[in-house]
Structures are given as C-alpha cells and as structure tokens.
Amino acid sequence: MKTKILAAMGTAVAIALGASAAVAGPTLTAVKQKGFVQCGVNPGLPGFSNPDSQGNWQGLDVDFCRAVGAAIFGDAKAVRFTPLSAQQRFTALQSGEIDILSRNTTWSLTRDTSLGLNFAPTTFYDGQGFMVPKSLGVSHATELNGATVCVQSGTTTELNLADYFRSKGMTFQPVVIESFDEVNAAFFAGRCDVYTTDASGMASIRSTLAPNPDDYIILPELISKEPLGPAVRHGDDEFFDIVKWVIYATMEAEERGITSANVDEQTKSQDPNVQRLLGTTPGMGQALGLNEKWAYNIIKTVGNYGEIFDRNVGVKTPLKLERGLNGLWTNGGLMYAPPVR
Amino acid sequence: MAISRNLGNPAPQAPRRSLINDPNARAVFFQILVLGGVALLGWYLVTNVLENLARQNIATGFSFLDREASFAIGESLIAYSPANSYSHALLVGFLNTIKVAVLGIVLATILGTIIGIARLSSNFLVAKLASAFVEIVRNIPVLLQLFFWYAVIGESLPNPRQALNPIPGVFLSNRGMKIPALADDPIWIWVGLSILVAIVGVWFLARWARKRQEATGQQFPIVLASIGVLIAVPLLTWLAGGAPTALDVPELQGFNFRGGSNMSPEFAALLVGLTVYTSSFIAEIVRSGIRAVNWGQTEAASALGLHRGTILRLVVLPQALRIIVPPTTSQYLNLTKNSSLAVAIGYPDLVSVANTTLNQTGQAIEAVAIMMTVYLTISLGISLFMNWYNKHIALVER
Prior knowledge:
Chain A is an alpha/beta fold and about 350 residues long. Chain A is built from 14 helices and 14 strands. The longest helix of chain A is centred in the last third of the chain and has 19 residues, at about 235-255.
C-alpha cells in the first residue's frame, strides 16, 4: 500500500537523518531523560495488544512493556505505545523511534543477526496452525493438498506455510493480504479453504470475528515454532540486560509464589531468594543499573508471569488458552528463569 | 563573454561588466552552488545511512536477491516456486503489475471513450447516465472502490462446490473464473507468431493503401482486407499444424478446480476497479477534446458532403486527439501507479512481493529503492511512448 511505502521511506529517511537514539548514548540514559519507555506494539491483536473501550492498551505484549516501565521508573504508566504494522516494526526499532519492540515477533536467526536486533527471553511460545470451516470435512493438515490458503503478508507465517507444503510435497494457492481485517473478511467470506496464522491469534480470531465460531475448527497440527518475545536494538547490552531480567523476574516471582496481592508480605520473607529478588537484600538492582525495588515494582503493579498470562490470554479470557508450553518448568512448561543472584 | 571576444565580435555599445554583475555568470554560479548543495546533501544522507546501518549491524546491499525466496505467490505469468530466488519473485510481481496495467489501460481507454462520447449524445437518458457515472466514480477514492469490487465479487459468488456453470466448461465461484484452456501443443506458439506476422503485414498493407490513394486517388478496401489477413494467416497456420482441438477443461477435484485457466477474484477486482476509476477521467478528457474542435469544422466537412462517420474520423478526431493525448498520458501513469493498491486486496503485484521480501530480509532501503526504480522506469516508458505518439499526431504545420 502506498502508505506503507511512505512509512518505509519515512523510516529510511529517519535512519538517514538520525543521529539516532543509540548514538546519543545507551538507551537507558535516553529513556530516563524522556521519562517513559517507547514501546512498539501490534495495532490490534486481542489478548496480546489491543486498546480497550477506554483507549487503554491491554494485552500480554503490552504488560511486558509496562513491566519495563515499572522496573525503570517504578511506574507501570511510564510507557508510551506506538502501534506498528508488520512491515514497519523493525525499521521503527532500528531507527530509534521505539525503545522496545513487543509485538508478537518471532525470534529467528536472521532477525537476531542481520536485522540488528537482540531478542529478550520468549514471553509466549506459539506455533502456526490452520483453521478450516467444518463443512470442508478436513481433520488433519495433511489433507490440505490443493487448498487455497488465506495468509496475512509481512510475517514468518508466509514462509512456514510454503515450507510446510513443500516438505509434504503438496501444492496450495496462497491469497496474501496485507490488512488484518481484510484477510479475516476474505476467509469468512469463503475466499479460502484454510486460514493460517499463529495458533493463539487464531483462537481469538475464531472467538471474536467468526460469524459462528462453531462452524470452524482449528486443526491439531502446529507447523512451526513461534517463540514470541520483545526485541531491542543490537549493541546496547545494558538495556538488553534490563529487558531480559524484567521478564525473568516475572517468571521467578511466579516460581517463588510472589503475586501482586502478596508481594508486600513477601518482602518480610526469610527466603534469601525472595529477599534478593525483592531488594530486601540489596545488590540486584544496582547490578542492573536500576532501583533496588525494581522487581518489587514490577510484581506490585503488573504482576508475575502467571498473573499476566491469566489476565490476558488464560482460560478465563475469550482466548481460553491453556498454559501448556507457557507453564513454568516446574509444571512441565518452558518458562525457566536463571537464578537471581 | 570570452567567446564573443574571441570571435572578434563584441557588442560595441555594451560596457564591460565585472563577473559579479554579469547575469549569465551569476546564473551559472548559483546553479553550481545549488547543484553542489544537493550533491552534498545526497552524499551526507547516503554515507550516514551506510554508517548507521553498519554500526547497528544491519546487512546492506543487494546480495539478498540471489537467496531463495521461500514464499509462494498466488498467480504468476512465468513459472515460479518458493525455491526460486528473490529476484525471480520480484520479476513475477513486476510482470503481474505490467499485466494489470496494460489490460487496465486498454480497457479504460475503450470504456472512457465510449462514456465520453455518450456524454455528448443528444439522447437525454444516455447523456445523463454517462454524467452520473463520471460524477460518482471519479469522486470516490480508488482504494474504496477496490474494496467494494473485491467484496462484491467475493460475497456474491458461491463456493467452488456450488460453482455457477453458465456455459459448459466455464465455472464461476469465489475462487475466480475458470475457463477451458487450449491443451498444450507446440502449434499454439506458431499460431501466436503468425498473429504477430499478420499484424505487421496489415500495417504495411495500410501504408501501401494510403500511399496509393495519395498518388492515384483510388481507394483500397483496407478494413475488410485487414480483417481477412488477421483471420486467414493464423487459421492457415493452425490447419497446417494438424488443427488440434484438444481443450484443458477445468474439473472440480478436492478443494478446487484443476486445469483450465483462471482469473482470480483479486485480479478481477483490481482490473475492474482501476478500469472504471480511470475511465471516468478519460471520459472527461475525451469529451473536452471533442468539444474543443470548432463546430465550424464539422459544418464545413458536411458541406463537402462527407458522411458523419468520416467527419468524425478524418476531421474531428485528428484535431481532438492533439488535445486528448497529453492529459490521457497522465491518466495512464495514474492507473499504473494506482495498481500498487493491489496489496490491499491480495493481488500479488510488485509492491506486494517487494513488501514480503522487505519483511523477510529486513532490507527496507533496498526493497523500497527497487520499487521506486521500477515504477519510475515504467512511468518514464509510458511517457516516452505517449510523447512520441503525441508528436506523431501533432498538427503538421506547413
């Protein structure tokens, strides 16, 4: 779309003119000067980042931005959000327009290297799946030979889709549409047999956008690994460390049973692990270049990982997602924080 | 000044002026200054980009074009698979852009001319309908019209299993229009070539007929003769090749129709949207061009006893075209550039493919540069052709 080209050109010009934020010194100094963290998010993905009826951003990706704000400023509101399209997101981060990209972005080798990004720990383990109308009578992805597939452009989804059909020796007809709304409309109008996107997103699309959610099924196969997490600019290790440990702190807090409700009592805990995390025993905050209360502030204002998950995408939300891979390692999931010491 | 002195022919009255007061020298000086400023700014931008990219560890250059694209493209004029390179994928997108632009230009010109003439019609209903069409269509943004046509096509047609079958072998569904294609046979290439030969032949025939008429006054039935040549040459080639009649008829297999050739809903929506939108502007240009030819010309021609059709063809149109062609060129350029809106409705044009490339490789500057270069080249090509045509039909002053 023309606007996209303009945006890309705009960011190109921004890079061209920019004695960008990274030049001015480490991101943390710049952020502290501004008084807020500038965070790039998805313009609308229920459960991950979506403005509510009052215009407040809500979602898992959004909450991790808030956690960074809480860690640096002690205030989860010290964050400003920039909604970004899939195409705009990397240039926005590279050019210094945003400090963190928390926009259901898949961690991959080329993005980590040639795009000049650093990926913080994964906050949501996802995988790409397929949704089909029940009337099609398909129950497995291997039966999709010759199907027409709706897919949104500008994502790893396009690649995984082509890879999957190539590996199975099957053919398909892609319908690649840039706008999220248009691709949904095309699928529900019957333009395609199959809709493919990240499984988490698919659940929310089916529950909120399908004319009748029961007419559609999500096939059991996941065809890719999609570790989604925040990314920061390559080359600023101080800020990268902060974002990493903000995420680990929420996992560590869940593992130690610290929640936003009991965090005040927990400051009196005799457990040295809890004391170090909450700053009762000082040292950790200083090592990160932050206030000793950094983790306390995160847990108090945003919550631990489990609270963030349950509030935004858990079984009590319209997305109805089980913890699964996103559970703590102690419960058979993949969420594992290195020791805070 | 130096030149005029060397020629020994100075203007005797002109007082010698210092360089500072010489308007020519000043003009040159300021032009060099501006040019130098622009060059400096460009150099600063380029080096700054390269420095920033290198510092942030971001890959640059066009080497990504040789890497495997790994993504699929919905429709293509040439063979393509995800195992091909990015440059091949971009070529597919480029050809898709050209396909819709060329067809759009031809159809918009035909539709625009008809509507432009209809607006001049003495029939009240025809004239008012044509005005209504123009006023509605040209005042709605083209992107909205594309969404409209895409929705109309997508929502109004049934799914493939309930496809409409208006003529045997033709299937209409929300996957597009499937028509029987000619089964693969080497003869079709020769038939295609013979059509080209016939077109060239007709061109020479027309030239010869015109020359003869200018020299002797004798007319040659050029229209009938041309039609005859255009039909006979390919037909003879086809007969010589054994007259194959095998058809590749589309069949419902699994999810979709297999075989035959397909016009996708995305392509149809884009083509209809661009054609309709641009034709409303062309209609106005055609109408103004015809109105600009003095009525006296028509009267004079009828006084000479020419038919109405002959008057239009020989007197009015040649004069109107001089007015019509330059603004029509702009409309052709607009149509070509508007085809980049294809990305909104999922037609894999150059912008769509380049966007995917951009996103997968992250090389925004290179991808945008490729898009800009390609559109610039297409647009300049159209301009050059239309300028040549404009010169060709311009009033020859004797």
